[in-house]
Design goal:
Elements lengths: L3 E8 L3 E3 L21 H8 E7 H8 L9 H11 L2 E5 L10 E3 L4 H8 L5 E6 L1 H9 L5 E7 L7 E2 L10 E8 L5 E7 L1
Parallel strand pairs: 1-6, 1-7, 3-4, 3-6, 4-5
Antiparallel strand pairs: 2-8, 7-10, 9-10
Length: about 190
């Protein structure tokens, strides 16, 4: 059966955004410089579906890089947009580019996981991640920890109801200090 993988960049102090939603801290390093091919490219090749919350989908689900963006950035977004997309929201307006689901239902998630295909990227946002974790639906975690401390912002993990045991699969460090940690649910 396919796995649901939470794959995100996070600051050393556990934030996924700054206090005003900024993600400029992502410029402090890259885990695409880890050699042996880009870890993100490998991840993108391992999935065919992305789960979004409404806010994340509205911000990133159809994002198009600016015309002067690098070829690498354009390639990344082209890959993202080639995936099947599900948006979890009770008040979204369908756009014909994604499948909309009103709420996180374990039965519906198991139905999607049982479909043929590759793994599923749990993109987020934070509220959707919390819902999936509280339902025990996240199978693996791939966290790129960036060498920056924000002190405040939107935390990755909040409102988690139960302890989640993890088993470390790999740790890879980049020259810029980004550390990619991959875990499976124990």
């Amino acid at each position: 059966m396919r796995k649901i993988v939470l794959n995100l960049a996070v600051t050393l102090d556990g934030f996924i955004e700054g206090p005003n939603g900024e993600i400029d801290w992502l410029e402090t390093g890259s885990y695409n410089e880890m050699g042996d091919g880009s870890p993100f490219e490998k991840f993108m090749n391992s999935i065919d579906t992305i789960f979004y919350g409404r806010i994340s989908y509205n911000k990133w689900g159809q994002y198009q890089p600016e015309g002067n963006a690098s070829t690498e950035e354009k390639k990344i977004w082209e890959s993202v947009h080639s995936k099947n997309k599900y948006v979890f929201s009770g008040n979204a307006v369908p756009d014909g580019k994604a499948t909309y689901i009103n709420s996180v239902s374990p039965n519906k998630i198991q139905e999607i996981k049982s479909l043929p295909g590759k793994d599923i990227w749990l993109y987020g946002g934070a509220g959707l991640i919390t819902s999936f974790m509280n339902e025990g639906l996240v199978d693996a975690y791939s966290l790129a920890v960036y060498p920056v401390i924000l002190g405040e912002g939107k935390p990755l993990f909040t409102g988690i109801q139960n302890k989640v045991g993890l088993q470390l699969r790999t740790v890879t460090a980049s020259p810029s200090g980004v550390v990619l940690m991959e875990y499976d649910k124990a």
